[in-house]
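name: query_chain
kind: protein
chains: 1
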Amino acid sequence: MTQLRKFRQQTVPPWRRAVLKVGSSLLAADSGGLSTRFALGLAQFISSCHASGREIVLVSSGAVAAGRMLLQDHSPEDTSNAARQAMAALGQTQTVALWQRLFDRPLAQVLLTHDDLRDRRRYLNARATLTELLRYNVLPVVNENDTVAVDELTLGDNDNLAAIVAALIDADMLLIATDIDGLYTADPRSNPDAEPIDEVHELTAEIMTMAGAAGSSVGTGGMRTKLEAAEKAAAAGIQTILFNGRDGEVVSLLARDLLHGTLLRTTATRMQARKYWLLHVPAVPGCIHVDAGAVRAISDEGASLLPKGIIDAVGDFQRGDMVEIVGDSCSGEPYVVARGITQYGAAEMNQIAGSHTRDIKERLGYSYGENVVHRDDLVITTDFGVNP
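structure:
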């Protein structure tokens, strides 16, 4: 076997919240099913991070590998959609059970599809759920809902799903545990001249061509999907780390913020990337008309939009839509103050306009929270040259 060249040790940039993606190759047992052989070290890494006040969302593969073992009548070569769908359904509980055995804290399974994250209403609900789980000190275990998204099973999309989840929860870092030390200039398993790449500042076309195809019989993703995930994360201002989850020493050092692997940096800040996205998401017809006090709170104090500052809502927009927030200039002419993703529809907003946050549930019979538009979902248009 080729002797792999070692990655130099480097310090991990500071982070508070991260998404850790663990692939099937780190969980599959040689005889079939799942094994804690490598998962134990990764669980210890997560526990160490939690002990230091950090938050982690775990994106875990392994369901198909686990289900394949339970479906004794199916051979490992059976890759039909129906068979893989059944394997994924059976294996989901096995995957979560494996992780739960390694923690003395509660875990929560969260199954997502890309449609859940493309649809703005589902996006809000998914983010609210994950944020609340983290607040309760629960470890979310996320997987793609393979039983209804079988077309994506062959794409290794848990890498890309992890990047999307990282952006969803405003993570600082995307950690991808794989079965190889990091990114090389070529496939190190077949090319003895392959050189390790410790750090990447920009994912150029040349860097992308260095990625090979899938390298494991149990997983569906190769290095290319990991670089695609890093590219998505970078666009959201999130850095990515590729490391060998099979190497106990590498995992142990990572808990001490020392990396032997590849760090993929980004030039965009998280705030810049998010604000840019919010600024360019198409707004629906209609607007939220707010008073002068709300304009000051949003523009000068960086506050969320609360129902008390709303005069009325115009249009027929729904919860999760991108809506313009309009105030009145000194001359009395309306102008767009900000735009953001609303937590309430227009009809609901007109029912709670001018009220205190504590009155929302009384007026509607339910509540999606005290913020009509949360400050994290809001961008001030005047910051981008649009003046009253």
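note: Residues 152-156, 213-221, 384-388 have pLDDT under 50 and may be disordered.
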